[in-house]
User: What shape does this take?
Amino acid sequence: MKGTRLHMTDVSGISTPVESARTDDVVRLTAAATAAAIAAGELSAEEATLAALDRIAKVDDAVHAFLHVDAEGALATARAVDARRAAGERLGPLAGVPLALKDVFTARGMPTTCGSRILEGWRPPYDATVVSRLRAADVVILGKVNMDEFAMGSSTENSAYGPTRNPWDLTRIPGGSSGGSAAAVAAFEAPLSIGTDTGGSIRQPAAVCGLVGVKPTYGGVSRYGLVAFSSSLDQAGPITRTVADAALLHAAIAGHDPLDSTSVELPVPPVVEAAARRDIRGMRVGVVRELAGEGYDPGVQAAFDAAVAELAGLGAEVVEVSCPHFTYAMAAYYLIAPSECSSNLARFDAMRFGLRAGDDGRAGAEEVMSRTRDVGFGAEVKRRVMLGTYALSSGYYDAYYGQAQKVRTLISRDFAAAYEQADVLVSPTTPTPAFPIGDKVDDPVAMYLSDLCTIPSNLAGGPAMSLPSGLVAGLPVGIQIMAPAFADDRLYLVGGALEAALDARRGHALLDEAPTL
Amino acid sequence: MSTSAPVIATPSYEDATARYEAVIGLETHVELGTASKMFCGCATVFGAEPNTQVCPVCLGLPGALPVVNEAAVRFATLIGLALNCTIASWCRFARKNYFYPDMPKNFQISQYDEPLCSNGWLDVEVEGEIHRVGITRVHLEEDTGKSLHVGGATGRIHGATHSLVDYNRAGIPLVEIVTEPDIRHPEVARAYVDELRELCRALAVSDVRMDQGSLRCDANVSLRPRPAAGQPDAPFGTRSETKNLNSLRSVERAVRFEIVRQAALLDAGERVIQETRHFDEASGRTSSGRSKEEATDYRYFPEPDLTPLALTSEYVEALRAVLPELPAQRRARLVAELGYTARELQEMRNAGVLELVEATVAAGASPAGARKWWLNELARRASDAGVEPRELAISPAQVARICELVAEGKLTDALGRKVVDGVLAGDGSPDEVVAARGLAVVSDDSALRDAVDAAIAGAPDIADKVRGGKLNAVGPLVGTVMKTMRGQADAAAVRRLLLERLEVS
Ligand SMILES: [Zn+2]
Assistant: This one.
């Protein structure tokens, strides 16, 4: 089943001066390399953008990462970058680099759907802070990419606009909810993407698409203009092909925002420097005992063990740590996130924006709201709204939401205790590689298990990264690195060193093994 | 049991209150007079074009986030301090979830079990007796938009063809002030709202215009039988909540009506239903309200988009130090310094002129003169014009000048009223009006002396009577002189001059 593709600007008619062979080379450049080539005058931002648009036109019918391509806007940004470079202006480290934006952010000039019917046709009148920072960094926003509806899901199958496919195997899911972001980057449609992570929605797709994905510390990146799923858990972050690219993008979007009360007034951790250092001698790496064992694919475990051995080989001290309350993380998450979403999604009521169904001139406001929400929301969204409404109901609040908040505190204490023994913690990112599309759509609980390892960091707020650890039967899997809150730079230090070591052992980046599209 | 509707005899109010004791608690919403809204930078001007003071935040657009307005926290803290409350050193906002078209996010950011201020009291004086009303809590929240139902009768939702929503009001900061069920009389309920209104005015935190909805009151009323002598109080009865009372008079009338209505039910052995009721100004009756929200479960939970509010003791103490003189303190001072009686103060308060009188005295008028001009003359003109006395185009200093001119005998009261006319008409200061309209009293010039002599010559019989000692007989002569002078003379001065010329003084 293929969903309708809305708002897809036709890019096939754009003539491109870039040779096809050159296009293939350009789109495979990392963001850092693209920016360096633009800065050196070897490549124009327009060429880089046209190459990306060309690649989208070529492969996105198969991958279906994009919901909206803003070719005109992207080219205008690119040309402005070129003009300013020609005028001798010194540009930022990501100037002219194309990016795919998860369709959960508001951006002027583009629709925002959140993968939902209920927002069909809505064009937000304002830019998310992440978007204004990308614009300020002269990043070229190619368009909006697919996601599970309102970021609820782990496969991008919950998008109202049809599933996105994993570039490693088009019959499989790209992960979710930021599946469009991961697929776009893995399919070389863009070197950069911004995703959001509420329970693993950046790290899990990054892992199953062979990419680097980072959930920054909660409060590190502004949520203003990020359409909320679960306010106390949502965090925006980069999905890229390399640790260095992730660091550049992280640095571009992070930092205090007066429009987001939960954004912290602290300097951005030195992530770019950390990514380049590559010396982890003497660092203590804690392997979380509870994030292994039953339910974990042996291949995933083997790739993880090999990566940990690599860290030891780099001079890190590997210790085992125990986080006994992580066992309850999933249960707590599925009370807190639905509770918050049941309230956050109440505003989708047909009154001021988006879809309006059943307004026949006779139906009252309540009935129009009800009809619109009935046809506008998908099954998973309804399931979570109902769960959350129930969990917050009077008489149940203490037993559900209240208890879940207590578990959250216990998980934070587990982390705090573990960080007394280790500088970073590690685990597999996901228990399994990407599963076939359609495999788990009827079994939400099996789907929820995809986020087993990633949820604790959302509940406690600390930063976490997923990095390719290897292949399992030809499919990529990841290692998760976790750090204490506001020590995001440690992820990049350890991730940068591990990535270099694994690439060196392999002789190439893991993504080079992906089949050609 | 009969199935036909029971006919319930309605007792008189006096009869009802002789047998039942009313238990009254009030919930008052005050719109804070901040320049911007509670959680965004939009303006809060009353009466602006619909939907011109809105932004992504107060429209509840996807992705928008709230940021707390410090001024609103400051104002709410001032109110809490003035109400003798404990100010929380740590508290949170909470979401109150319910669906309604004028509620942009379909939840209201409010406070639930962690209010900013709690445990205070306000003393209310009624006919010389002080009633202490406990304040349960004062909390901050945002206002909703305003629905306008079109096409039906009298703006009601029933029968309307469609509704319009103005979101200018959405997000305006509100405090909700909840009393303990301490009030026992409708007059005290009214006086409480009046006192609270004055308090907010003194604190300059709100314009507290009940007619514009910047102060709105809900009254919870229940009855319980009066205990026999020596018996303990009965437990509280079931209460009704009458919503949106928009004048002091309505507060008193609605409570009074509820007391009689509930007494009738109890007399007939019926139960009082816990419900929301509406007060109809025209009939003076309350009626069962169709609940605004179908569900009463608001599913409160802490607002995750806002960090907790943690006021330092320095912040609170700095505000306590700048608390202005509160109405009760001011009244005590006015009695002590200006010699007004409690009754006079009450009259001036009721007329809304107390601050103006005080300012007029400060500008040099005598307390009696200032009171007389504001209470008698200017309050009447304000009410004729349908405005508050303070909205009249005359300043306390100008009133003080008129008082001064009258005291010096340069104006009579009648002329003073004409000067007021002139000032209100925009003709300038009192002195300018006097000059321009030639209103000065003629007190000591030849014209007056000629008029006096002519009056004496024209009525020799009266003149003789006065000369004979009947001083009161001079009245008709005064009238003749005043007529000749076309009112531009001070009657007292004329009388004095007549007696002088008749050589009896
Ligand atoms: Zn606003």
